[in-house]
Amino acid sequence: MQNEPLAVGTEAPHFELPDADMENFALTALHGKRHVVLYFYPRDDTPGCTLEANEFSDLEEEFAKYDTIVVGVSRDDCLSHASFRDKYGLSVLLLSDPDARVCKKYGVMYEKEVDGHKKWSIKRSTFVIDKNGKLHHVAYGVQAHGHAQEILNLIKEIK
Q1: Are 150 and 157 contacting, i.e. CB atoms less than 8 angstroms apart?
Q2: pLDDT of residue 1
Q3: Which strand (E) or helix (H) includes residue 14?
Q4: Residues 91, 14: contact at Cβ < 8 Å?
Q5: Greater confidence, 67 or 7?
Q6: What is the dotted CATH code of the domain comprising 16-157?
Q7: 56 pLDDT exceeds 90?
């Protein structure tokens, strides 16, 4: 199930996924228009994931100044995303990947043991995709706190 990690400078894997309002989001629709911060997180409404989503949302205007959209992906369904977004007033776009199809393309799945059973989970990871659809930054296993600001600093460096 685990794919190889992606490398900076390669083309970001294309995908389409539904958002919290069940509207389809296609990565290719942003080519030539905007940079994309694509972050993968384990679950809606958990402490680390809420912190990360709030920090990205708080910096939305700053990201917008640099032609950047922030998109979060988890295996939660669209309804879960909608209640998570509404509960915290999140401005980031949340995409649903219940079968982990896109998670696998980006190599963010890992096996962990929970109560003596192995289960697949998402490793908190972030990808910065430039306007040309190339991976500008790849980070697997990031810490939630302060991460949004680190990514904003990277976005400011893209020419």
Answers
A1: no
A2: 45
A3: none
A4: no
A5: 67
A6: 3.40.30.10
A7: yes
* 49 catalytically annotated: yes
Least confident of 2-11, 56-65, 78-87: 2-11
Sign of CA dihedral 90, 28, 35, 74: positive
Q: Which of the residues 12, 20, 37, 49 is marked catalytic?
A: 49
Residue position matching structure tokens 């401005």: 91
Q: Which residues contact 23 (CB under 8 A, 6 or more apart)?
A: none
Secondary structure (DSSP) of 76-123: S-HHHHHHHHHHHT--SEEEE-TT-HHHHHTT-EEEEEETTEEEEEEP
Q: 3-class SS at 56?
A: helix
**pLDDT classification of 4: cutoffs 50, 70, 90:** low
- Reply yes or no on whether the pLDDT at 78 is more than 90: yes
Instruction: Kindly give the pairing relationship between strand 68-74 and strand 35-40.
Output: parallel
H or E element in which residue 31 lies: none
**Total Cβ atoms within 10 A of residue 83:** 14
Residue 81 zone, left/alpha/beta (φ > 0; ψ -120 to 50; rest): alpha
